[in-house]
Design a protein that fits this description.
The protein is an alpha+beta fold. Helix content is 62%, strand content 20%. Strands 3-2-5 form a three-stranded antiparallel beta sheet. A three-stranded antiparallel beta sheet has the order 6-7-8. Strands 1-4 form a two-stranded antiparallel ribbon. A hairpin with a 2-residue loop joins strand 2 and strand 3. Helix 1 packs antiparallel against helix 2, helix 5 packs across helix 7 and helix 8 crosses helix 9.
Length: 321
């Protein structure tokens, strides 16, 4: 294998490793490959001119170094990204979005900050509430980086730090609330969590947009007990409602008795209506006290109704024949 081929292979290997490392834009790779191809063509041209191998190897080295310079110098940040540039280990500024260049060896980009809204799920398992009930709580945190410089310089790994801060805040809030407050007061719990986590993450250049509790899991035996308690409470309410209904019905009867006492005609009409409704049903048997029959003259009335019904039946039979 010639010197030119070896150098070209080494340059290609470096390019592949750089691409795998990430944040190597396509334009940098294209420029690097163009310089490598140019190095191979120039090497072939010099070889045809019978130039010494040392000079050919030197020019190949120069071309490969220039290609690697472009490969590491050209950077592209997406619309939602910021690149933190360090010059000899000191903060030199933020770059992006778009294409930009750095000085290889002198400058480097150790971290890329994403400015989109991020979602971090977190949980607290077997955490005791204020009334010493162990619960498992799952929640989701929505946050965004508003200062890329602080996120890169003030904390080692801001994503991990935010996750741990959210989890510890969740445990702290659970310990200050009773189980009943947690089950019915999720909105208040969300607000408290957002306030606590935001206070901890603001020095890191991160702001918390919202916190949402997804699920609260309680022990199975306690869940069964609460279910029985809820069932007993519903039964108690049903009995109370039934008692109130009976009370209202009794009051209605009492009001009706006063009205009928002062108006015997209305009482007679009501009795007649009740008797008529009962006689409408086929095979119905109506039992009326003798005192009511004598008082309201219901005997004659029932006879008239019975006679009328018989005549109506006979008329229907004749029409059928």
């Amino acid at each position: 294998m010639t010197i030119e081929a070896k150098m070209f292979k080494a340059g290609s290997k470096v390019a592949r490793e750089s691409l795998a490392a990430g944040h190597i834009p396509g334009v940098a790779i294209v420029v690097c490959l163009i310089w490598m191809v140019a190095a191979a063509l120039v090497a072939l041209w010099l070889s045809s001119l019978h130039v010494a191998d040392a000079w050919i190897g030197l020019q190949v080295v120069v071309f490969v170094l220039v290609s690697l310079l472009f490969l590491y110098a050209i950077k592209v940040a997406d619309q939602w990204e910021k690149a933190v540039v360090l010059r000899f280990g000191r903060f030199a500024g933020l770059r992006g979005p778009g294409i930009f260049a750095i000085l290889p060896v002198i400058e480097r980009v150790p971290i890329w900050i994403d400015h989109r809204v991020m979602v971090t799920p977190f949980s607290a398992e077997k955490t005791l509430t204020k009334d010493t009930v162990p619960v498992d709580v799952d929640a989701v945190l929505f946050w965004v980086v508003w200062d890329a410089e602080k996120a890169a310089l003030e904390v080692e790994n801001y994503r991990t730090a935010i996750a741990w801060a959210a989890q510890t805040a969740l445990r702290e809030v659970i310990g200050q609330m009773s189980l009943a407050d947690i089950l019915v007061g999720r909105a208040r719990m969300d607000e408290d969590l957002q306030k606590i986590i935001d206070q901890r993450t603001t020095p890191w250049g991160v702001t918390v947009q919202s916190v949402e509790i997804r699920d609260v899991v309680i022990p199975q035996d306690l869940e069964d007990t609460m279910s029985r308690q809820a069932q007993a409470e519903r039964e108690r309410q049903a009995r109370v409602i039934l008692g109130e209904s009976e009370k209202q019905i009794a009051q209605s009867f009492a009001d009706a008795s006063v009205a009928y006492r002062d108006n015997p005609t209305a009482l007679h009409l009501r009795a007649m209506n009740m008797l008529f409704e009962g006689l409408k049903e086929k095979g119905a048997l109506v039992i009326v006290p003798s005192s009511a029959v004598d008082t309201m003259n219901l005997g004659a009335l029932s006879g008239i109704v019975s006679l009328g019904m018989r005549h109506a039946e006979k008329g229907a039979g004749s029409a059928t024949e």
